[in-house]
């Protein structure tokens, strides 16, 4: 599933989560840290992965999750969430163009009812 990570979505997440670290919101802070653009929150990426999966599987519930981040995700980047499900676990890989793995993780799922 492809998704564009925009500065508007990162700002909305920052507002809700109260994580207003400048590296996520201010170009100057991102540049001082060595990035071309601001970067997305890691937990935003994990939450988005869960939301995208549950949209396609509304009868399931996530019980546990973990994710390992390999690289920061620059804002205004297209990413692909690839899900691979087994009986009780869903593995997710997040890649950015041109195929760079940004993060990998998994979550345990069960049926709601």
From TrEMBL:
| Residue ranges crossing the lipid bilayer per the database entry | none
What Gene3D superfamilies would the database entry show?
Hotdog Thioesterase
Signal peptide as annotated in the record: none
Top-rank taxon of the source lineage equals: Bacteria
Do you know which Pfam families this protein is assigned to?
A: MaoC_dehydratas
InterPro entries attached to this UniProt entry: Fatty_acid_synthase, HotDog_dom_sf, MaoC-like_dom, UPF0336/Enoyl-CoA_hydratase
Query: Locate the MaoC-like domain: which residues?
Result: 4-90
Q: What is this protein called?
A: MaoC family dehydratase
Lineage here is:
Bacteria, Bacillati, Bacillota, Bacilli, Bacillales
